[in-house]
Amino acid sequence: MGSEWRTVKIGDLCTFLAGSAFAKKYQGDTKGDHPFIKVSDMNLVGNERFINDANNWISESTRAKIGAKLHPKNSIAFAKIGVALTYNRRRILTQSTILDNNMMSAIPNNDIVHFIYFYYLLTTIDFNEVVCGTSLPYLRVDDLKKIEILLPPLPEQRAIAHILGSLDDKIELNRRMNKTLEAIARAIFKSWFIDFDPVIDNALRAGNPIPDSMAERAEMRRRILDQNQPSSFSQRAKGRNYQEGFDFSGLGEISIDEIYRLFPDSFQDSELGPIPKGWEVKEIGETVIFNYGKALKASDRKPGNIPVFGSNGQVGLHNEALVKGPGIIIGRKGNPGVITWAYEDFFPIDTTFYAKKTRVISSLIYLFYVLKTQDLPSLSADSAVPGLNRNLAYKSKILVPNEKVLTAFDGQIEPLFKKTHLNEKESKTLTYLRDNLLPKLISGELRIPDVEKFLKEAGV
């Protein structure tokens, strides 16, 4: 390592500032002059690296009244007491912020250390090695100040921060893109199979009666048709918000006119209420079989790339699949009724069911969304460990559209699912790269030219 790297103490790089008491009577406001961050805010979606959101805000007058300290922008926040500190989570403040008294911040000296580099540096330090207390762990500032690290010159800090930050930026971009794709897919399902927008539009054009329960929705759709400005998914993806529904253009290869021709232009009564004419109502048990997963202890799993699913989502990896993907996993024990999608071959453990569709419904994607609309968690058998009662679930009634509509639905949603899956796979690769590069860059084991060459060859 070059001589320009030097050994310093954390206390030489920053000032530590403790959080402030946050009385309950001041909590709950979602607007104000300053965000008041609690430990739980670090778990909010979008707060994985930078604090971009907060559950509580307070006014400047309230801040002054209670004497709460402001932590400046670019400070690094973390838990200082309790189990939360053992999770080693760090967050960068994006504005002047108040922290509650279970947290503190490290305010970097910008003349010595770059704040992004400092964030990554702190993520490599295990606070569990300096905690005090047993039943209630806590941090002492004096102990934090004494931690020794190797510090490169500022230009190299910026370069390291750029490399690691670029990887995290791409991971965050993929997360946001997937959130948008998932919202679009849910909106299509809701519009087609819950709000029945295409059927309402067809009925309006044909002059057919519309059930009274759909009058408000029909009026919204009528205004769109009168204005000849159908709201499209392509527009929504660009940020335009239409609450009246969508006309389904901009996705897949089928045209809007072709889509509308697949839907009827009238409604019929059913035990679920008015439904599109010609569609059916079936019991879940007629459309899908819930098969039991298989026991696979964590100690029995072998290194591999096959996702292992428990009742609340993926719980690990294995080298062998039990079920060919894509597929649907249903929580059976522990988290009954939780519905998860598997893009590839997978292994559902014995706390789950996995779905096998019957010939009644061809679209597994439709089944995924329609199962999520069911209140399956309420169908748990009484026991010490909540468990989904399969027989009760089978008796629940769902809507079964005609085959052509389901085929069109798959055509719209499959591209979204594929893109989401590609983004997830890319993010896993980027996360692996970041987690492996981080300690080596911070320690000086890897230097910037070597990393840049490696990333270029890897196509990152």
Model description:
This protein is α+β, with helices and mostly antiparallel strands and 460 residues long. The chain folds into three domains: 6-151, DNA methylase specificity domains (Adenine-n6-DNA-methyltransferase TaqI, Chain A, domain 2, Alpha-Beta Complex); 155-271 and 402-460, no CATH class; 283-400, Alpha-Beta Complex (Adenine-n6-DNA-methyltransferase TaqI, Chain A, domain 2). The protein contains 13 helices and 23 strands. A five-stranded mixed sheet has the order 2-9-6-7-4. Strands 14-20-17-18 form a four-stranded antiparallel sheet. Strands 5-3-8 form a three-stranded mixed sheet. A hairpin with a 6-residue loop joins strand 11 (267-268) and strand 12 (275-276). The longest helix has 41 residues, at 403-443. The radius of gyration is 27 Å and the shape is globular. Residues 231-250 have low confidence and may be disordered.
Observed structural traits:
alpha+beta, Adenine-n6-DNA-methyltransferase TaqI, Chain A, domain 2, four-stranded antiparallel sheet, 13 helices, 23 strands
